[in-house]
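= Paired protein data =
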Amino acid sequence: MNKGEIVRFFNDRLDYEKQQPYLIISPDDQIMECNWTFCKLTRYTKDELKKLRWNMDLTPAEWRQKEAETLDLLCQNREPRVYRKELLHKNRSRIPVEVVAHAITGHDGKVHKYLAFINILPRHKHSRKSWRKQRAYFTLLGYAPSIYYRCKNDRKWTMKWIEGDCYKLTGYQAEDLIDNKTVAWGDLIPPDDLERTWDVAQMGLRDSRPFQQEYRIITANGTEKWVLEQCLGIVNSKGEEFFEGFITDITERKRSEEQLRALLNDYENMTSEINNLTSKVISHLYMIRDTIDHKAEALMMIQKSIEDLLCIQSRLNLAKESVNRYSACQNIPFPIILSTTIKTHLSRPGYQGSGLR
């Protein structure tokens, strides 16, 4: 992977990691929680949003009745509702959006809160291609094969309905997976990942919060793929537990991450080798300096070379520390930061290059 490919991957990774805006709303219209992308979309802070009401404060007057009716229907039948509205920005401008709303019920069967995912709509006519790009920016559905689904909370993850690119993602048609007709979704997940996905899902259901996780599936032709799942546990009026959400193919991203980890490992090996070599050169220069008893100019040159080599070692180590800190924050190594970090350190005042000629 050359520098240009690394830069392109880094930019694509940043775009991919942008979460879809969502918020949680109480039955009395109070905003209870939201993610940072919803704050960014509206330009309100999270604390400011928690003091606002979804329908009364963030919805223009002409949209309020339609939205209230939609949420009433959602409360009655508990089926996800998709509707369009305008969202009020902090500066009072309007943002056209599509809302995918879910009712979150407790074990008493009553609606305790609503979960709303927000998709930005284009303000003017776009081509189909540009619309897909804009939608993919805020959702997990993009060019990668993806599905939207509902499944039962059982060990087989029995699918009740599936929409999207099921065949491209799994090699099976949607009807093959629904009610485990041919194969169960749980059968596609390797045993090493299956138990972990169960534990994560039960925790999300227990806490009544959306969650996401990554795991592997084995397709119909035996190919291993990595998927990212973002979903929410719901309980209907009969007390039956389900999960609804998106599953999208992230195999290419995982392969790129492995390449980046290999690049970081090569970088660490390289810095260790450079440190070893410069240490040997410094040691030899010290020996030469201590044995020469004349030629003051040569002594000064040797001393300057020693200082330069020590400076190179110091700044390589600083660059390595910066990369490690960045990798720890991102939970993935990003060697693209290496060139910037090293250039920054080596361009600091006081570094004039080697004194050896």
About this structure: The chain has 13 helices and ten strands. The two ends are 34 Å apart (CA to CA). The chain has a mean pLDDT of 76. The longest strand covers residues 94-105.
